[in-house]
Amino acid sequence: MGHVGGPGPRRPDRGVAALSVLPTLAAAGTGLAITAAIVDTPYLLFAYHDAKLHLVLDAADTGVALLVAYLLWGRYRRSRRLQDLLLAGGLLLLAIAGLGMALALHLLGLDDGRADVWLPVTVRVLGASLIVAAAVSGVRLVRDRWAHVLTALPWVTVALGLVLTYALRDVLPVALAESPPVSAQRPVIAGHPALLVAHGLTAACFAVASVLFTVRAGSGPARRDELIRWLGPAFALAAFARLNYLLFPSLYSDWFYTGDLLRTGSYAVLLVGAAREISRYWSAQARAAVLEDRRRLARELHDGVVQELAYIRLETLTSVEDSGHRDRMVAACDRALDEARAAIDALGRSTDEPLGFVLHRAARQVADRYHARLEVELDDSVHADDDQRHALIRITREAVSNAIRHGRADRVRLLLERDEERRRLVVRDEGMGFDPATVRRNTTGYGLTSMEERASALRGSVNIHSTPGEGTTVAVTW
Fold it and tell me: Keyword Methyltransferase: yes or no (predicted)?
């Protein structure tokens, strides 16, 4: 037996990496353009008096944050990845720091411009910190002893914050003036220094997370992760939203701010990523269900049809006296068994397997059945879609079977290669060979017509070269 060869490890796809960067650059460019336009143009304002719009956006953003956090929690339960758990916790804290905490503090009578400012700001900083930690953690798994601690962290943080805020409500400093600035045309950096630092720190956390998630989305397993791909642009917008909140006092509930607009844009991008993740999940579930049905059908074929054919073959060998008739019946049973086993193999295998591996297995099954030696040289970079794979498997089995059974070959060579823009499958033997013209006049043939029809379905061609006494070469090009 030979070996399964290939082109070696592939380098990361630079095109995929570039595509992962473009959305983040677009989001960052949008945030920068909006911020620069507001700073430089007196006709655009940092804030507009519209309490209803502010409330609607707060509610929408909170809902999206909770949805994505729930989605990430489900991913964590399946994968046990630290990244998913930290992201879920961070988004949960951001959601709580929004509309929900404002309502809770109002019901507790803590809406005096102190507790209702410091607690949401602190929770938001912690949420942004968890998001940065998630971006750094990568694909690490959560150890069992830390799982419960990290899961409870957001809830413990909020509960502890409420208790401390209530206990220190009389000593907390005033974060903002009672009323917003008179003009919203120019930046007004006002408020307690700790509040300004919190806004800046949150913006920095989101910016770092945006860069890290963008880099991760362009390399490794994350290239196929729909949600991770959208985290970079989402957090880029979130960073500019925090920057806008820093440039103008923005915690007055009856005003609509440009930071609100950018923040909602950030959550809209997150929602796109969540929708694509959900779609991908259900597609995977559907594929798994189809694969399970195929495996069930394969088991039924194996336990039913194959066993009956094997019984018929055995009875034919022991009960039919005419040797010519017996040989024809046994050959027919062998062909039927090959067809049934090929169907079972096709039904029970995943379509994600490399083409070379699938063809090698199909040829090996036939070669082992007739005790022939198989040599393979397969290029792992050659791919085919599902319909093409099925046709190539059938051609491979037919060609190997013909080489051994009719050509009396004790060694068969299987080759899969790429020739410029075309792909080629070759089955070569050194058996008895035959005259193709003579065979084509024989209605029974060696399956040549079947192979030609399958090659035509590939939008390709099959070339069969054989000379009596010199072996046969079957080459399929598509």
Answer: no
